[in-house]
Every structure is written in C-alpha cells, then in structure tokens.
Amino acid sequence: MFTTEMCRRGVSINPSFHPASINRYVRNGYAGNRYAGRLIAMASLHGKERILARPLKSGLGLTLRHASSVDTDRFGSFDGERPRQDDAPTTCQRKAVAALETLDLDLGIASEGSFGPHPAVPMLPVGQECMTFVDRRDGLVIHEQLVSHRTNYGSCSGSEPEAIAGWLHRIGFPRHGLMIRPLEPEPAGESYWLAKGVHDPRQLATLIAEAVRRSPLGLARLETDMRAHCNPTRRIAIRQLAFRLVRRVASTCPSCGAPGWGVVATIAGLPCSACGLATALVKLEVMGCSVCTHRTEYARRDRRSAADPMHCPYCNP
Q1: What does the pLDDT profile of the chain (317 residues) look like in tens digits?
Q2: pTM for this model (two decimals)
Q3: Which of 60, 119, 142, 189 gives a 20 to 30 Å CA spacing to 179?
C-alpha cells in the first residue's frame, strides 16, 4: 500500500547511476578498502543476482554469490498467493540474513518491490523498490529505497486477445510477461493462476480461451507479471536502486565514519513560485548516519527552490 509520506521521504527522485560515479566515491576515500575482495550473498528466484553483481563489484569490490537454495517466496510473492507478512525493509533484511546464513558469509543483500496507484494521482501506477545491505560482522543494516514512476504495472479483463490489443501494447507484451486467471467475484485458493510468465502470443490466446471457459463471468483476468525475470522495466529500476545503495554504503558518516550516510527523512514545504505559500513538495533533505544520531539538513539535490503553482493548495485548490 502506498502513502503520500512514502513519496515524500526523498526516495521518489530517480537518478541514474553509473559505475564511474560510484568509483569516484571510492577513490575519494569514502569506502576505502572496507569491503573490497569480500563475498556477499543474495537469494533470488527471479534473476536479481545478475542485476546486482556489476554494481556491487564496480562500486565496492564485492563478489556476489547466489544462495539458490533459499525459497524467497516464503517471505511473500508477487502473485498474491503468499502474502508478505512484514514491511519491505524488514522483509529485505530477513531475506539478506537467510542468504548469508545459507552460504556462511558475513555480508548479504536483498531487494523487495511493491506496486500500486500513486497516492496523489490514482490513475498513475508507481513502483516502490527497497534494497537492504547487511554486514553481520560489524552489525550494520543499511536500507535504500526508490519510487519509480516508470512502470508497466497494470491489469485488465477480456474475452479474446483482439479485445485487449491496446492494453497489451501499452504494457509491452510480449517482452513483458503476463499472469492469467479466470475472472471471478472473489478468487480463492493457493493456485488460482492458470499461468504466470506468459510471453508467447499463441499461448496467450489459448490461456485466455481457457480462462473464459472457467470464469463464471465469461472473462479472463490478466495482470502484468512484476517478477524481475519477467519484467525488463522493473529490472531497470532495480539496477538504479542497486547503484544508489552502493553509493550509500560507500559514503561514510562525517561524525563517526560508519558507512551508510544518506537520506533518512525529508521536510516538506517547498514554496509556491506564484504566491510563496508552502506546498507538500520536499523543501529539505535530512542526511543521516546508519549507526550514530548525526543528522544534517540540505537543500534539494536538484536545487529546485520553488514549486509550480499546480502543486499549491491555494493557487490550485
């Protein structure tokens, strides 16, 4: 579930990181040799280890090891059949710990995602990605998040492929996978999906016909498959977040020197450019340490000093 506060925490900015920008932090001494040459564990059923390997190697000198025996779906699955029991940061931490314990390592990393309507613009879908770095040896847990407005998350109902051709084009099928089931008033059971990870148009037509036959409403329900290996758009967001997390781990606290210095909160109130009244947009970012209580307020990184009147509750009530 998305809230307006999630989009105000400084994680809605979606910068694109490149290994060269992270290496600059390393050369400047922010990360030093703290993690260079070490191994880090990750558990994933959906190929995320291939996405994170390069950022971890380029930015921190880490080599990723895949804990393939860990069933990460036990922490919750995208298809709704196994609900997530904890919030995203807690789930990420549990997955990272499960991976490092399985491989008997000191370092672990995990990611988690959720999707839904934008809190301010319900017709606009957004995705929230969370990623966590766990250093068991030094007792460190470092979280980073990203809210991406670039997502193909969506669903529709139909009786044949031709009737939903426009929707299929918008969500990027067949490059992006689909999940299909009969449309029912209240679907129940642990395996109500006819199929997941569908990329073939001919298979799609067959599955829609079968779903229509089984549905008491005579319709098939289709949803975008948001698992990383079935969704190239989501893979881009995960990669961006990986670089962001690596940059955070490589940044040390100016007070105690611990890694993990980054945005911990935001302060709303960016003034309207027309009337000067405060808006709900972020005015200041609060940088903080993952270990000590040191905090510093900074102006927005994009140097934006005023909000468009469209965001003002007075100019645009």
Answers
A1: 323 333 333 332 223 333 343 344 334 444 447 899 999 999 999 999 999 999 999 999 999 999 999 999 888 777 777 778 889 999 999 999 999 999 999 999 999 999 887 666 667 888 999 999 999 999 999 999 998 889 999 999 999 999 999 999 999 999 999 999 999 876 555 457 899 999 999 999 999 999 999 999 999 999 999 999 999 999 999 999 999 999 999 999 999 999 999 999 999 999 999 999 999 999 999 999 988 989 999 988 888 999 999 989 999 87
A2: 0.83
A3: 119
Residue 7 is encoded by which pair of tokens?
A: 């989009």
